[in-house]
Amino acid sequence: MLAAKGRLSIRKLMDCESDYKLLFKWLNDEVVQEFYEGKSVKHTLEQIHDEYRSRAIGENYVQSCIIVYGEIAIGYLQYYHLQPEEIKVYGAARNEQVYGIDLFIGEPTYWNKGIGTDVIKLTVDFLFSKKGVHEIFIDPQTWNERAIACYEKCGFQKVKVLPKREIHDGEYKDNQIMRITHEEFKDN
Ligand SMILES: CC(C)(COP(=O)(O)OP(=O)(O)OC[C@H]1O[C@@H](n2cnc3c(N)ncnc32)[C@H](O)[C@@H]1OP(=O)(O)O)[C@@H](O)C(=O)NCCC(=O)NCCS
């Protein structure tokens, strides 16, 4: 277990079929895909293995995690050292201990209940207090107003918009780059 509070916990993705099948289900769910990756992206179980196994066994700079609510796995989160290109274009204040986070709640019945806010706060607290991180970025697409509202509630601030940065269902979309520093989180 990486972090837990109340009914919520975040654990590492495990190298086991049941975890890969969760990703297979969520990443192929059109309701989720509308907000994450786009409906045109289809994943086979083999592709899931290829992409996520190195992360599950700790051989990738991305740490993949499962979000658990009560006893139920409800979503996916990943955190990672921001790569040099991202550090530069996002305008990070430093080169080290700068992290990025991505996430989705893969069970839509759990959306809009404040759980995403709790997940982000728990993860941000973990990264700042246990991993010695200084600055964390998150990069929702500009049209994803719920995600942006959720991140703002957690203390993230808008830094800049990167135009036409990601393809979503065949169209280039703008990303809203958002940041929180350890100092801002402590003052929150
Ligand atoms: C984004 C996500 C993680 C947020 O988690 P969540 O538990 O649904 O969010 P919360 O309930 O904690 O907070 C959402 C806030 O957005 C608000 N909101 C919802 N829809 C909105 C909209 N269309 N426009 C503006 N605000 C909106 C809610 O009212 C809530 O704010 P409030 O508590 O002040 O009322 C989750 O919805 C999700 O996984 N969505 C699908 C995938 C996705 O978008 N991933 C993020 C990619 S960057």
Structure, described:
- The protein is an alpha+beta fold and 188 residues long.
- It has a single domain, classed as Aminopeptidase.
- It contains seven helices and eight strands.
- The protein has helices at residues 17-27, 30-33, 45-56, 84-90, 115-130, 145-153, 182-187; strands at 3-5, 8-12, 62-69, 72-81, 98-105, 135-138, 157-168, 171-181.
- Strand 5, helix 5 (115-130) and strand 6 (135-138) form a beta-alpha-beta unit.
- The chain is globular.
- It starts with a strand and ends with a helix.
- The mean pLDDT is 97.
- Residues 32, 35-36, 103-105, 111-117, 140, 144-147, 149-150, 153 line the site of coenzyme A.
Number of strands: 8
The overall number of domains is 1
Bound small molecules, deduplicated = coenzyme A
CATH topology: Aminopeptidase
Query: In this structure, how is the largest beta sheet organized?
Result: 8 strands, mixed
Helical proportion, percent range: 25-40%
Mean pLDDT level: 97
CATH homologous superfamily classification: Gcn5-related N-acetyltransferase (GNAT)
Give the SSE string.
Answer: EEHHHEEHEHEHEEH
Going by CATH, the architecture would be: 3-Layer(aba) Sandwich
Return the structural class. Answer: alpha+beta
Between the first and last Cα atoms, what is the distance in angstroms?
25 Å
Proportion of strand residues: 25-35%
**CATH C-level category:** Alpha Beta
Largest beta sheet: what is the strand line-up? 1-2-3-4-5-6-8-7
